[in-house]
Amino acid sequence: MAPKDETTTSTVEPSNLLSQIASDFDEDENTSGAVTEKLAEIVNKRFSAPLGEEKLKEKLGQYLRPDNCAKLAVPKVNPEIWMKLNRPASRQDLHMASIQRAIVKAGTALTQLAEILLTTPSGTTGPDLGKLLTMNADAVALLGHATHQLSMHRRQAIKPFLNKEYATLCSPQGPVTEFLFGDELQSQLNNIKASNKIGNTMASESPRPPAKGKEPWKNKPKEYLKNKVSNFQAGRLSSYAEQWKLLTSDKFILDMVTGAHIELSSTPFQVKCQQKKLFSSKERLVIDSEIKSLLAKGVIVPSVTEPGEYISPIFIIPKKDGSYRMILNLKQFNEHVAYHHFKMDTLASAISMMKPLCFMASVDFKDAYYSVPIASTDQKYLKFIWDGQLYKFVCFPNGLACCPRMFTKLLKPVYANLRQQGYESSGYIDDSYLQGDDFADCVANVKVTVHMFDSLGLITHPEKSVLIPTQRLTYLGFILDSKEMKIYLTPEKTDRLIKLCVDILKKPKSTVQEIASLVGMMTASFPAVMYGPLHYRSIDMDKNEALKKSKGNFNSSMTLSSSSIEDLHWWSVSLPSAFNVVQHS
């Protein structure tokens, strides 16, 4: 090994010089001596405003990457990932990459500047000072441009979390100083408030009817929505196809809007119509009334026999309001419908969003399924006969297996758009949950959401929706309380489940079907019954054992074990005070 050279010299090796510079970097908490006033003016100007488009293009093309500096480049997104990105995500990445390009070009200019300094032999005439200053100024300009653009991007990222009235604070015209929104923030806030106050005063003093197509629901939302409900026409989404095209380019969704096709796993084939159910005189009156109503709405139309048709039986079920809904029994036809696993929001989705003291609202659609038209080629599969007349559904019927998945997919871009605007929401088929940190935030959420649904042809039911924000909301059969951060069963569900438990306790024997229904109601109540999962296993095991002994006969009788009877007593006593706590890990 060569001995270490102890000779002192004034010449510093380039590599040592670079090492010293690297070790001298600090966190810039302190300032150094002032630079030349003109230089300071250039730096401050370039870091407070972006370059013009032509000037930026010129500077970006001026500096080429050295051959051996492969890292002086903007990384591209891997093609496999890029293909998976939606439009908003790809646009955002391109925007960030353009800022990154300016930083890379600034690094290229500084690298070339360092190369000139390092390759100048000692004792020779110095490098061209004009060239060095130009390169340095270009690097500063590009870095200043990138810094300003990143500041604007940070403003836009913060925008969804501001009250909507303060959105103008994020304008690119606002100055960036030591603070992201400038030094005069309080003054800007006061000006915005004053401007809004004047606008509200003028609106109240000079009322005038809204122009045609100009959001009439904002003035009298209840009356507007009631009018929409009373004038509902089936398949109405097809009239709003252009608005859907502005929201999404998904071909599956756009096909659904103009006329949904039923994806089949096999060709439906019917030798003869299914057995007709015998209805009582009361049931016949109900069906006559329902058919009359469905014809008026355009949900069904009279039809004639055609090749490949599929005729299903009908039945009726009672609704909460005391009326009835006629259902097309598509059990056999659904065997030919392609099944796809899909994910959908549930009550758990809403609970996971809840925050202490948040305000909540809900939106329920009027005849949600009936809003979606069925392609004319597929309407032949949705037929039934009543009093010798053949009818067919021309829109989504209740009972078609693919409808929940398709309707969930239909609304995905709607909720995604609302979330991009900063509004918290989730949806379970035709029930939407809306949330805001305070009353005003939730009101804004309701207004924007209802307006968006309305603009796409989906009608909000004013009676079934909760449009006034509350901290205790009934949603999907449960009561969500953000003050206590607890979940409760509705009184109706509580009474129904208690009655079922008591009725079974009174009888020495029950049918397997009755116990199966009881177990189903118990498990469905778990979100609001904290210790419910600990008190149903025995009942479920008794049911399974009885079903096994009867070879699958749900009408067979069974007796509950002593442990199951004990659990039934627990449910009947505990249900009136049952609740569950909202916990976020």
TrEMBL record:
Bias kind Polar residues: ranges: 8-22
Cited InterPro entries: DNA/RNA_pol_sf, Hepadnavirus_pol/RT, Rev_trsase/Diguanyl_cyclase, RT_dom
Region of interest: Disordered: 1-30, 199-219
Gene3D superfamilies in UniProt: 3.30.70.270, HIV Type 1 Reverse Transcriptase, subunit A, domain 1 (3.10.10.10)
Coiled-coil annotated spans: none
Range of residues in the leader sequence: none
Pfam families, sorted: RVT_1 (PF00078)
Domain of life: Eukaryota
PANTHER family (UniProt xref): REVERSE TRANSCRIPTASE DOMAIN-CONTAINING PROTEIN, RIBONUCLEASE H
Protein name per its UniProtKB record: Uncharacterized protein
Species of provenance: Paramuricea clavata (Red gorgonian)
